[in-house]
Amino acid sequence: MVNCKLDDFLQQANKDLDLALPFWPQGTMDVDETNLFITPLMVVQVITFECGGLALAISHAYPAMDGSTTFKIIYEWAKVCKFGTPSKDINFMNFNLGTFFPYKDLTTILEPPVDEGKRKNSKLIARKFVFEEDAISRLKEKFDSVGEGLGFKPSRVEMITTLLWRSLIRSTGSNSHLKRSIMSFPINLRGKVATFPEIANSFGNLIINKI
């Protein structure tokens, strides 16, 4: 129970994202992430406010579920709760990924769990960067001016990511010791594999990283 109204909290959290960190589901702190047989696929923490408002904090086992699956569950869950949609009418996901991608033992590729002592002593920091529309337009003009050299027209995500990455490289290289860096973009394969239209609404982890 949070002793303030949801609207007040959202206004405060908009200025200081660290206020939301205590809402992280604590149930995932005591499980072995390398053992999916004992690790919950999803942990949901319900936070109530004095005005009656609710907030959900969700953590999921990434080897079993990706962000698209989690968002779909929340969306359909909200439809049931808000609109009273019967569960039989929910357009839920298909459990057919195993047909196209047979089961494999993941224990050899899963990283060992972080030492609990180090995890508890670590400090989490939340940051938010806001780009106004006019700033994005100016950034787009700069990219367009060198568009022929790029050979393609970058999207908004690519432009902003490039700007943030360049800033990070410059800040870390300020001590004259520039470190190598690499960036990867997660790509949701649902709806992007023409030969497998059946996986467009599949439950599970169907994300690849593009470098």
From TrEMBL:
Pfam families: Transferase. The keyword Membrane does not apply. The keyword Acetylation does not apply. InterPro entries: CAT-like_dom_sf. One of its GO terms (molecular function) is acyltransferase activity. Keywords: Acyltransferase, Transferase. Belongs to the plant acyltransferase family. PANTHER family: ACETYL-COA-BENZYLALCOHOL ACETYLTRANSFERASE-LIKE, F21J9.9. This is Anthocyanin acyltransferase. It comes from Solanum verrucosum.
